[in-house]
Hints:
Distance between the termini: 86 Å
Mean pLDDT: 84
Helix content: 40-55%
Number of helices: 3
Oligomer: single chain
Number of strands: 6
Radius of gyration: 22 Å
Amino acid sequence: xxxxxxxxxxxxxxxxxxxxxxxxxxxxxxxxxxxxxxxxxxxxxxxxxxxxxxxxxxxxxxxxxxxxxxxxxxxxxxxxxxxxxxxxxxxxxxxxxxxxxxxxxxxxxxxxxxxxxxxxxxxxxxxxxxxxxxxxxxxxxx
Length: 142
């Protein structure tokens, strides 16, 4: 009779660990999608930066949220998702840094009070420049 509550506790703890593993795997897949789409559809020209930040990045974030189950109440509560963000993407000279950040709900146990957890996946995406052939100075390239 006393083993049933102990069994239920371990079952609950195991399901939460399993949910965390699922969340991390889904974050890896979603961050790859976000990075690849940013690489292929973003612009290098400053004139198109408003499209990238105003339309493209929120659309990528929307698709990532859909994949992670942010809009499904059952999946959201099982995985403990609180917030999901991809935007803004950090631009540098060579790389674009796409960071997927997920905050989870704190563990709700009366004996253990903790804060929520923050999971981040960072992808470095190269700019979509055409490679330039390396030519030594003073040599005539054909």
